[in-house]
Amino acid sequence: MLAIEITWTSLYLGVHYPSDILGGYLLAIFWAIAGGYLTKVNVKL
User: Fold this and answer.
1) Is residue 43 part of a domain?
2) Which of 2, 3, 15, 41 could form a disulfide with 36 if both were Cys (CB 3.0 to 4.6 A apart)?
C-alpha cells in the first residue's frame, strides 16, 4: 500500500514521469525473480 501511495504522490507532484515509475516497477519485478532463481526460491507471479 505504501508503494502505491508513493507512486501517486510522485506523479501528482511531477517528480517522475509515468514511464519512470513503470520502469522502476518492472526493474523491481525482474530483480525479485532473478534473486529467486539465484537463491533457488520458487517465485510465482
Assistant:
1) no
2) 41
Dist. CA 29–CA 31, nearest whole Å = 5
Alpha-helical runs (H) found in the chain: 2-13, 18-38
Domain count along the chain = 1
One-letter amino acid for residue 13 of the chain: L
Cell of 29: 519485478
Range of the domain at 10: 2-38
Q: Write down the pTM of the prediction.
A: 0.69
Residue by residue, pLDDT tens for the chain (45 residues) are 898 898 899 999 999 999 999 999 999 999 998 988 888 766 676
In a domain, 14, yes or no: yes
